[in-house]
Design goal:
Chain lengths: 308, 427
């Protein structure tokens, strides 16, 4: 297995194809732990994992917590409301204090891009990026790849459409890097306000409409629309967004039989995705959540080895 | 007692000189420039350039109000070490330099400083963009220009009035050109790198559109407009056109915009977070070309000291700006070594033009004038080291960088205000 002993997982952009595949292969061997009656192995006994989440999160935080616990690590959670950040402590001081308690792995979620880089430069423990602003969310892309590979047995040559607010999405960025490294073709679509300047340089095809993006696609990833963005003139109304960029059954009439529909969650039913599509035959949205635990177990396992 | 600076290469574009010679200084004034002069004391300048004292027309000295970042004293010592004999300091202090009393305070503090200080006054009250500051009173107290640096004058009508009013007192208006609506809270140049990093971008048009507005207002009012820290190719183009139309428009560029581009931000180094942002390699090349052909008149560092606590934070939260006084000349000398700029052009952009634009003394080694003189060793290699900085702050991405060429001796009115250790080896 090609594992280069990295200290930190900051983004998919830094990883090679071989490293990504090594994580996915490791995740496969961990997946069945969650299917056993006793969902626990002693692999990370004595390892301290800190979930440092300064932005609201249910899925990712819970997923990392379960992953750590199923590997017998000691997992603690620190959120913005329970930390001294509220008392005005700087991020640097908070992080140093956590490390002083001998944490082995720090999992960080923050609204500002670059925070994982910032922390990795000043901490000796492993830093795992659980989402930094609009930059990257590497474990989300890894679990997405894992879910696609599980169904299709390959990534190479697939056509994947990513639809929605590409400009503000860390999920989109990580997936674009990951899918391109593993040989998939990537199309992106969304209103012009949500397509970032110079995105072509990331080797993706920019589509003008939802129909153009999903025509003949093997996988469609829908991104969550943040209603707050309406105030910044990114779109005029939820109603109009749903009409032009919402995924409905009618739009899927010519779809491939084995199409996969994905969404990182939480979904806005009736906005970017119609309820019957989210719950319909192509959807693997809940599989993504299940696989998230296995992928994060693999990540914790591989990165815990980096320090010792 | 007289002092002779002997055997250096005297580069003095205003007097059409670029040749080896001696400079004789008496009672703080240049009394003679020529060959084989003699004096009571002598400085061996063999192999060095002898140039009119450099002038940095855009620095932030932070006093009053932000003395933990810099003071007039420390900033001026940094200036002297960088080869400067005069600086123009921006008004975004606390309180803002928007009235004669603050101008007086700065000039009082500057009396004991290592270099000459020329305050720039605010255009609007508190640089708040609503209503003119007391420009006449500040002119009397000694400001040399007007600017709401850091906070563009959003209201076009107010900028027009500011330009008209400034003309009455013979002051140039310095434009910090930035359309804040288009900047939309951006933290770096908008382009392929900001898209990769997920950081909010500042498009070049935010600068270009504002520069175009101010050029049109300068044309309407006849004001002397100076465009601060040009960063975009399109801006260079617009200034070139304005000059061709015969308008009184001048411009400056920073050493960092001439030497770095946005790719440098890939590791989220907050020391590279500056406003205007570092742009593309194409922009950088256009800035160098604009500086070489004279479209851009001057180099100014936009020396912006910040405490480490304001930089060791999330990129979004970090303060904009980097220090520049002690690296400005060495970075420009790299362009000379690369053949992009001649030594004469360097002296024009770093001394002659700032004096001309601000209408202050200096920029020449004329007999009878104050002996503000800088000696430069163009080949002296050194490593940029925070421990050797005179500035109170060291927020610069150039730390650890090996650079070739620096100021080794700076004289203000004939008195040494900086002497590099290498000068000890000369007798």
């Amino acid at each position: 297995m090609a594992w280069g002993k990295r200290k930190d997982l900051l983004g998919i952009e830094d990883l090679s194809r071989e490293e990504i595949e090594a994580i996915l292969d490791t995740a496969e061997s961990f997946k069945d732990v969650s299917l056993r009656k006793i969902k626990k192995v002693p692999t990370l006994r004595g390892v301290t994992v800190v979930n440092f989440f300064l932005e609201p999160s249910t899925r990712t935080r819970t997923s990392f917590e379960l992953a750590g616990k199923r590997l017998s690590a000691d997992v603690i959670n620190i959120s913005a409301s329970s930390s001294s950040i509220l008392k005005g402590e700087s991020l640097k001081d908070t992080a140093w204090n956590i490390e002083a308690m001998n944490a082995d792995i720090l999992i960080v979620r923050h609204r500002a891009a670059g925070v994982a880089h910032f922390l990795s430069g000043m901490l000796d423990c492993s830093v795992i990026n659980a989402g930094d602003g609009a930059h990257e969310h590497p474990t989300q892309a890894l679990l997405d790849l894992f879910s696609i590979r599980e169904r299709k047995q390959k990534i190479d040559g697939l056509t994947v459409a990513i639809v929605g607010d590409i400009a503000h999405s860390r999920v989109a960025r990580s997936n674009i890097f990951a899918l391109r490294k593993l040989g998939a073709l990537v199309r992106i679509a969304g209103p012009g306000t949500m397509i970032p300047l110079g995105v072509e340089a990331m080797d993706v095809q920019v589509c003008r409409s939802l129909d153009e993006a999903i025509d003949g696609a093997d996988v469609i990833m829908m991104l969550r629309i943040q209603r707050e963005r309406q105030e910044k003139s990114l779109f005029p109304s939820v109603r109009e967004y749903a009409r032009f960029f919402g995924l409905t059954r009618q739009r899927l009439q010519g779809a491939k039989k084995d199409l996969l529909i994905m969404h990182p969650g939480p979904i806005n039913r009736g906005v970017e995705i119609a309820p019957d599509v989210a719950d319909g035959p192509y959807s693997i949205i809940l599989d993504q959540v299940t696989n998230g635990v296995a992928v994060r177990m693999a990540t914790l396992y591989l990165y815990s080895g980096a320090k010792r | 007692m007289s002092l002779i600076i002997q055997g250096g290469r005297i580069i003095d574009p205003v007097n059409g000189r670029d040749r080896e010679g001696d400079l004789l200084i008496e009672k703080g004034r240049i009394v003679k420039v020529g060959k084989t002069l003699s004096g009571d004391r002598r400085i061996d300048a063999k192999g060095l350039w002898v140039v009119p004292g450099l002038i940095d027309m855009h620095v932030h000295l932070r006093e009053p109000g932000y003395e933990y970042k810099e003071t007039i004293e420390t900033g001026c010592r940094a200036a002297a070490a960088g080869g400067f004999t005069a600086v123009a300091c921006m008004p975004n202090t606390n309180p803002v330099n928007d009235n004669g009393a603050v101008t007086d305070f700065i000039l009082t503090r500057a009396r004991s400083a290592a270099v000459s200080v020329h305050p720039v006054g605010a255009i609007t009250r508190g640089s708040g963009g609503e209503g003119l500051a007391e420009i006449g009173e500040m002119a009397e107290a000694g400001v040399v220009a007007l600017s709401d640096d850091g906070r563009p004058v959003r209201n076009g009508q107010l900028m027009r009035r500011g330009m008209e009013y400034a003309g009455t007192f013979g002051l140039p208006v310095i434009s910090h050109a930035e359309d804040l609506d288009l900047c939309a809270g951006g933290v770096m140049h908008e382009g392929v790198v900001s898209t990769r990093l997920g950081l909010r971008g500042i498009p070049s048009v935010a600068e270009e559109s504002m520069v175009e507005r101010d050029i049109l207002l300068a044309e309407l009012t006849g004001a002397a407009l100076h465009v601060a820290h040009v960063s975009a190719r399109g801006t260079v183009m617009r200034i070139r056109e304005a000059k061709a139309r015969g308008l009184s428009v001048t411009a400056e560029v920073t050493p960092h915009h001439l030497t770095l581009s946005h790719e440098a931000l890939l590791e989220y180094d907050t020391n590279l977070k500056v406003n205007p942002p570092l742009r593309t390699e194409e922009d950088r090349q256009a800035l160098i070309a604009g500086l070489a052909d004279g479209t851009i008149d001057a180099v100014a560092s936009d020396h912006a000291p910040h405490n480490i606590a304001e930089k060791e934070v999330e990129f979004d939260q970090a303060a904009f700006g980097m220090v520049g006084l002690e690296t400005s000349l060495p970075l420009l000398l790299q362009l000379v070594h690369e053949g992009r700029l001649t030594p004469v052009q360097l002296v024009e952009r770093m001394s002659v033009a700032p004096a001309r634009i601000l209408r202050i003394k200096g920029g020449a080694l004329s007999e009878g004038e104050a002996a503000d003189v800088t000696l430069i060793d163009p080949d002296l290699s050194f490593t940029v080291d925070a421990a050797r900085f005179y500035s109170r702050s060291f927020n610069t991405p150039f730390l650890g960088r090996e650079l070739k060429g620096k100021a080794v001796y700076t004289l203000l009115r004939g008195k040494p205000v900086y002497r590099d250790p290498v000068m000890k080896d000369r007798k």
